[in-house]
Amino acid sequence: xxxxxxxxxxxxxxxxxxxxxxxxxxxxxxxxxxxxxxxxxxxxxxxxxxxxxxxxxxxxxxxxxxxxxxxxxxxxxxxxxxxxxxxxxxxxxxxxxxxxxxxxxxxxxxxxxxxxxxxxxxxxxxxxxxxxxxxxxxxxxxxxxxxxxxxxxxxxxxxxxxxxxxxxxxxxxxxxxxxxxxxxxxxxxxxxxxxxxxxxxxxxxxxxxxxxxxxxxxxxxxxxxxxxxxxxxxxxxxxxxxxxxxxxxxxxxxxxxxxxxxxxxxxxxxxxxxxxxxxxxxxxxxxxxxxxxxxxxxxxxxxxxxxxxxxxxxxxxxxxxxxxxxxxxxxxxxxxxxxxxxxxxxxxxxxxxxxxxxxxxxxxxxxxxxxxxxxxxxxxxxxxxxxxxxxxxxxxxxxxxxxxxxxxxxxxxxxxxxxxxxxxxxxxxxxxxxxxxxxxxxxx
Length: 444
Prior knowledge:
Blueprint: E1 3-7, E2 13-17, H1 18-49, H2 54-69, E3 71-79, E4 89-96, H3 107-116, E5 120-122, E6 143-150, E7 153-163, H4 171-217, E8 228-235, E9 243-249, E10 254-262, H5 266-284, H6 290-304, E11 311-319, E12 324-330, E13 336-338, E14 346-347, E15 351-352, E16 366-369, E17 375-379, H7 395-405, H8 411-426, E18 435-442
Parallel strand pairs: 12-15
Antiparallel strand pairs: 1-2, 3-4, 3-7, 5-6, 6-7, 8-18, 9-10, 10-11, 11-12, 12-16, 13-14, 13-17, 17-18
């Protein structure tokens, strides 16, 4: 066997066999690779450790991962946990040489990662028994895929394609990419949570602004009419609501009194509420018959909203000097007109279906009379539908009894008593719907 002089550590010169030299060279190669890996990991840690921008973090992970395993392309795919299907993913970043096509992670590969949650290496995917019958891109020769795990939950995968200059990826590549994924997963998750928190804060600010705008759209105070005492309020179940009330002056002592309830809750409902208000104000200004005002408003709402959107509405023109109330009830809760004699309240029913359901509908109108001592209660379904801890509704009988009990008080006090009664019934539980109320008393 050939012998060569070889200087070993501690300055001692001895002879070593070619096999020993080869072994030492391999150990030296391994040490060099370990130093390179540590350098890559250290560089990656410094690059992503202080960042809170998930896009920037992922781009850096892709870049370092691709260089670390010498891949033609690396893709980071994050699982979309808000999607209806857990397999739906968000490809957030990829890097590849210009001459290579952009690959997208195959759903079958993602399914395998969801199931096993461990690294996968294949240097001949077309014959891999784990993906029998699956068609791959012809240019894909080798795949190395590792999971991004946070607290045993798969949040994404890192996938590298086609080892440069070699037949395929090896176990060292797999180990290094797995370390990179393990080092990066929590940082990606933290950045994503930070971005979600920022988005939530922004959304809350926008909702707060929308709520303020919505409140500004409602009347600041009821009109002051000789011989009448009027009060009104609207309490949203969420920060913004879908209930609407308004008082619009027409002419010659006549006022439009309206209360609406649009479908849905939150921001979409508030937008439809604003549309309803603008529509009704525009149509009221034309000073046409009540049924004509509602017919035109219905047509406009139908044409400007989605098919599933609609609004119930009670609309009336109060002729204050004579005490007549011309009204149309478009699918709304039936208002109660309490007469001074103490009889059961009249229900204002005449009208038609809710606005926005059909483009054309033959609405009807009727006339009620308000004499001195009479009280009109117009309300949204948030009052009778309010429930207690046993899911029992407040109901119309409680509303009627409350108004009867406080009939001799001013309109604002009647309104406050009704609202307090509803809140006591709810016993601090979550409000399921907006609560809106108009009280009109004729005092002389």
